[in-house]
Amino acid sequence: MSSRPDDRHRAVDHYENFPVASWLCPPRLRQPVAAIYWFARTADDIADEGIATEGERLADLFTYRNLLRASLGGNGVPAGRWPHVFGPLGQAIEGFGLPGQPMFDLLDAFEQDVRKTAAGAGYADRAELLDYCRRSANPVGRLLLHLYGVSDARSLAQSDAICSALQLVNFWQDLGVDLARGRYYLPAEDCRRHGIDPADPASWPDHPAAPALVRELCDWARALMLEGAPLVHAVPGRAGWELRLVVQGGLRILRRIEGLGYRTFRQRPRLGPADVPPMLWHAARM
Fold this sequence. Notes:
Layout: H1 30-48, H2 54-72, H3 83-96, H4 101-119, H5 126-136, H6 138-148, H7 153-173, H8 175-180, H9 188-193, H10 210-228, H11 237-259, H12 276-285
Keywords: Transferase
Pfam families: SQS_PSY
Protein name: Squalene synthase HpnC
């Protein structure tokens, strides 16, 4: 196995709906927020980008997990291929007491992605998909709430709802991209209810019922987002305003999907400068 990560996990340009560590983020939290982001982003790239085999990806994620365990042990920057990740992460762990379990949950989700992609497998129903979101998205929100000093059960549940909604929005936004990569997030149960064969992904883009299915799934994501939205009042100061824009960004993408007639197998909606004024307006009204 090659020792150079770029041999298998090429650097890629990432389009992000919801930027992190922006000017709204409190200055003292920008370092740990960026450290969390790059920890998750790099692990996701290991699982998803480049030409690595399934075995190589899982081996690299196993090594990554051990480096996380060493970082949590407080023994300085562990030796390895990702010092630019674990150096800042170690500082954030030491300075802010970041809990380890959410980060291990993220790695569990990325490993699941590798295995499901290799097997050409999808998700049976919404419950199974939400369980994936519980590990792939919700940990980030819980880590951020830890930084903000928010830990009550209601806020954690609202954070989980927002993060799961954002993950679902990303799925329905990226249907065409994920289909080409062999990742199938449409719940099989929902597919069958609309007369779509979950075992025949190649038929999904042109199926006449696909837009109705995507619309229903977008409604589900919107309901989750609105369920979690009151969290913006529990997060203090500038961080609360950033969260408002995150929520509004997710809702805005859903409007973009609607504007495409829910045909995201053919076109990926993006946010642009014209979306900023309405997002700010709706954020202020929250």
